[in-house]
Design goal:
Blueprint (H helix, E strand, L loop, with lengths): L9 H15 L11 H8 L3 H13 L3 E4 L3 E4 L6 H6 L9 H19 L5 H17 L12 E4 L2 H11 L6 E4 L5 H9 L3 E4 L10 H10 L2 E7 L2 E2 L4 E2 L2 H12 L4 E5 L24 E6 L1 H4 L6 E5 L3 H9 L5 H12 L2 H28 L3 E2 L8 E6 L5 H8 L4 E5 L12 E6 L4 H19 L13
Parallel strand pairs: 4-5, 4-6, 6-9, 9-10
Antiparallel strand pairs: 1-2, 3-11, 7-8, 10-11, 12-13, 13-15, 14-15
Helix pairs in contact: 1-3, 2-3, 5-13, 6-13, 7-8, 7-12, 14-16, 15-16
Length: 457
């Protein structure tokens, strides 16, 4: 059985436990999994917690529910199909901040054992205060600790946020491709999801956006803070200003997604979309996962709406206090800023290597741009894609693939693959890309030709 991570929150522990059961079931489908009540008693958690874990696995296509019979492992659930939909993944460059996080957490645990650190009371408060200080830039653009709200992850945060603003079931407009956890949360809340119209260059079509805001009862606009996909380009200050002016004419909440701006290779830009928006209608969403890694999946949102504090208090998320306080120390001592500079340089180096090998192995089959941030490359195939072939080809390699269409509520990005390199060995990367090239060759029926390893040195 797999082991839960210390400080992990409840439904993730159940999720990991079920993952281990699914792995044991390989080759023996259909395999019935324990019932909600059985798992609730066995793991000493609530029925709602078990249901959340099963729902996540069901969303990922790893299990399916048979009415009056229970949950069953879906055929091939433990293999490559999961690789096609799950994420994010642990990237080696994350290890720097994760080590610092664990060091602080062990130190705090020793203090608590001596009775000198009441972390249960101050962990979340310190983290909210540290975040407010970090995002405050001037007497005009400032935040207070009581305007910062924490959640176990992005999906939970979005669900509480929509309830607090009385937007469940309303119309929301998103920049596409949209962060997968955000899009999943919107779908779970029954939102009507529209997508920001795009120009031929892949940026927001501002004129079409203005018409859409005038024609549709949009309650919220979700936009990236600075990094637009799939090109991976920084949003221009002109576009930021224009979107800000548009929102000034419409009573629409802006949820600015700050989930990946920390990973812009040149550092977060000085101008953000939030700088041009009425702060009364502004919400800023972030997460520690992009910067610190999977051991810190906590998400946060900043907003001045009076109902947010009550909504998050009612959910009463049980967040690991030691880890929250360790994160507060990382922020307060400037360690995150110092390590992020190293992380950005490492990610840029990895992505440059990744891009070079992609051009050598798949140059005639795909088009892509070297992004200005992040660890994912978006490839556009010149021919129709069959995801099953791609997933099977990459099974067991250091490449993780997500179909572009998974990040869209409409029929967009079907020709895209989002690839993440989670290894460190260039030779292993070359081998994975050769497999991907062969899969694309089978699909389009055109020979790729032989490429030797000398091209990669």
């Amino acid at each position: 059985m797999g082991r839960s991570v210390p400080g992990d929150y409840a439904y993730r522990k159940v999720y990991r436990y079920l993952e281990a059961l699914i792995d044991e079931a390989q080759g023996r489908e259909p395999w019935r999994l324990p019932s909600l009540r059985t798992l609730s008693r066995r793991l000493r958690v609530s029925l709602a917690t078990v249901q959340s874990a099963y729902s996540l696995l069901e969303d990922e296509g790893r299990v399916h529910c048979v009415p009056r019979s229970g949950y069953f492992v879906r055929a091939h659930a433990g293999g490559s199909p999961v690789q096609a939909v799950a994420g994010p993944w642990h990237v080696p460059a994350h290890s720097m901040l994760e080590r610092s996080l664990f060091t602080h957490e062990r130190r705090l645990a020793r203090q608590r054992a001596r009775g000198t650190a009441p972390v249960e009371e101050v962990g979340g408060a310190r983290l909210r205060n540290a975040l407010a200080e970090r995002y405050t830039r001037s007497s005009t653009h400032y935040w207070r600790a009581e305007e910062v709200h924490l959640a176990p992850d992005v999906q939970a945060l979005v669900e509480v946020l929509l309830a607090a603003l009385a937007l469940r079931g309303a119309t929301v407009l998103v920049q596409s491709p949209c962060c997968w956890p955000v899009l999943r949360a919107l779908q779970r809340c029954g939102m009507r999801v529209l997508e920001v119209p795009l120009s031929n260059s892949g940026t927001a079509d501002l004129q079409a956006l203005a018409r859409l805001l005038s024609a549709e009862p949009v309650g919220m606009l979700i936009m990236p803070s600075c990094l637009s996909l799939p090109q991976g380009r920084l949003m221009s200050q002109h576009d930021q200003q224009q979107i800000g002016q548009l929102l000034g004419d419409h009573p629409v909440w802006l949820l600015e997604s700050d989930l990946d701006s920390e990973l812009c290779y040149s550092g977060p830009p000085n101008a953000r979309l939030r700088d041009w928006v009425d702060p009364r209608w502004l919400l800023v969403m972030g997460s520690f996962e992009a910067a610190v890694g999977g051991e810190a999946p906590y998400a946060y949102v900043m907003g001045r709406h009076a109902g947010l504090a009550e909504a998050f208090a009612q959910r009463a998320f049980q967040l690991a206090p030691l880890r929250l306080q360790a994160l507060a120390h990382l922020l307060g001592k400037g360690e995150i800023e110092t390590q992020l500079a190293l992380l950005r340089a490492e990610l840029q180096r990895r992505m440059a290597c990744f891009s070079r090998q992609l051009k050598l192995e798949l140059g005639e089959h795909v088009t892509f741009d070297m992004p200005e941030g992040g660890w994912t490359l978006w490839l556009r195939s010149r021919w129709p894609l069959r995801l099953d072939d791609v997933v099977a080809a990459l099974s067991g390699t250091d490449l993780r693939v997500v179909p572009g269409g998974q990040h869209s509520a409409e029929v967009r990005h079907q020709q895209y693959l989002a690839l993440t390199w989670v290894g460190e060995d260039p030779d292993a990367l070359q081998h994975a890309l050769e497999k991907l090239a062969q899969a694309l060759e089978l699909r389009c029926g055109r020979p790729i030709g032989q490429r030797g390893s000398q091209h990669l040195r």
